[in-house]
Model the fold of this input.
Amino acid sequence: MKTKLWGIFILVLTSMLYLTACDNSTNPGIEDSLELFAGLETVTEASNTTLTINKGSNLRDDGYFSVKISGALPHDRIKNVETEAWCLEWKKPLRSNNDVHEGVKWFDTSNNSKWKPLNYFFSIRHDLQSQYDNLTYREIQAVVWALSGYMGIAPEFNVDKLNDSELPSTHRENGRANFDRELVKEITSRVLSNYSSSSIKFGGFALQTQNDEQDVFVPVSRIQLLPDPLAIGVDETRTMTARVFDEDGDEVVDPEITWNIDNESIANVDENGMVTGVIVGQTLVYATSGGVTASAVVNVTRTVDNVGNDFIIGMLPNFDATNTIELHLTSSVNTTVTVDYPINNPTFTTSVSLTPGEITIVEIPNGSSVWNEGTVQNNGIRASSDQDFVMYAINRRPFSTDAAINLPINVLGTEYVITSYTPSQTRGSVFSVVAAFDNTEVTINPKNNLTGGFSAGEEFTITLNSGEGFLGSSQADLTGTLITSSQPVSVTNGNRCVNVPPGTSACDHIFQVAHPLFSWDTETIAAPLPDRPNGSIYRVVAGADNTTVSRNGSVVATLNKGEFHETGIVSGTQVFSANNPIFATQYMPGQSTAGATTGDPAMGSLISTEQFLSAYTFSTIGGGQFNQHWLNIIANNDDVANGTVLLDDAVVSASEFTAISGTNFSYAQILLSEGTHTTVSGSNPHGIYVIGLAGFDSYIYPGGAGISDFN
Done:
């Protein structure tokens, strides 16, 4: 199928300045520029967008230009994407490649009769491209010019009247026309003969720049596919949503949708829009309804990650009930996220808009961290959207804080091993299990006795419906507790408030979202924590019997499934490896330990180098609660040497990095300003850990992780 990657778009060039031109011309008058927007309705959600113009490349599939749209607020029919573009006024100037226009305003042409021929043309464009093999972008461009002249928004473009020498340079080669004049005439005639009595499947938007330098017309399909793009792993399944709109812009209820995909060797789609990754690659998924087809990009990768559009989590109790629960949300596209607590019959619901490159914070009632221990309870949190986003969970209280990345429902698992720490006070170890689906049977084999009469080593089974959860609590260490379930569940583990190492003042809340056993790997790397010159404590948990664990190349333990090795306080970088899957956790020792001056216990999941990502958006947490925020970056040596590791678009100098012995990685430790940040690496993925320090308070969280089956 020949549907385009991002849809069909047109570049409207009504510039008030004459620069490099489609063809030599004089400046349009003010009246001509204003005429384009007469009678059009402003789209307020997109009243401050940014537009980047680039040159196209492919003869059949690209326009002369692509436009990159960013800054638009969530809207049913407007997306922040990069897509093809076309000149509308053949005599108007074009500006140079990579021009950026800010503050672009949008006008809806859907119900304006003057624009109907153009909207109709794009309603039938897919059919035309299927019918005419020789229909390239040059013919399409010429039809656009002809229709624009007919509509009275551009000078006349009549292929019968124009000599070859009068054509724009883009439409002549060696002094002769390089497009099919007869085909342009045939299509133009067909459109003008049928548009007035035909159904219009596209409704366009005219875009106006602040200085009237360039204007853009964007015809948009009546079908919206979400999420777009869709990112899935090999063998992962995600369901697409197709929203169909009628000619008045109202959404159609229960529309009939036909699904297909461009390359079934990369991914396939069923009759319900469920897409399954097959091999690594990129393809397009299509949805057709009422003769209209829309497309979305499908990126299949070796791993899936912590990016998704539906999350659930059960938060853990802190030192006491004076804590604050926050979700930190970010996305690469504009979207709206709805947060419900509790999931069933919520008493708290809010919807927030996410802007790319920014973190949006949602505060959740702290009752979400208060549980009736040992019983099934409706106490889960859910965050969902049409588009993909990233979620971090924060459990914050003065002198008792920690943070974690969340995993979306599509990467949750059915087998977990709990990691906590040795309790040294009455505030013991805890974990929560929250079901994603109804009738989920959860079997728990506790390492030590649980509140509620559950004995160590004796399996018990509970049944959870979607959104329901169970809090396991013990005055003893729960590391090694085994959890299996009939359907995927979300698991959070840690301690209410703990001293690290035991007996060292003061205690601090620690927690992380547990990673499913299928995603564990056989090697992981750790960098030192700031203000801990004597080092950190590590635990390595085995995912199978007869697991031989090595630290920095030396064997330190042989473990069975659920057993762990603890290092004590060790300094410097650490490389943990094993013959079977393992999961390692880094613990920040308390402020009273030798060499430390600030901070307190915190718990950070260590991410395998195989699960590093190429880009992250993250934020510091706690506002003024923390006086230091740090970033640990673990990057491939090639990217370090080539200067392709970026923090907030600035190169992190190679001099900032220290080599990690026995690996091809180095780490940098950088003091951060409070707020939102980004990192990007060049040819290789990298890992990040965000760390906060204050007097007897701290947090650690990894910035993200690819979650894949390494078993």
Remarks:
- Residues 1-34, 57-62 have pLDDT under 50 and may be disordered.
- The CA atoms of residues 112 and 508 lie 62 Å apart.
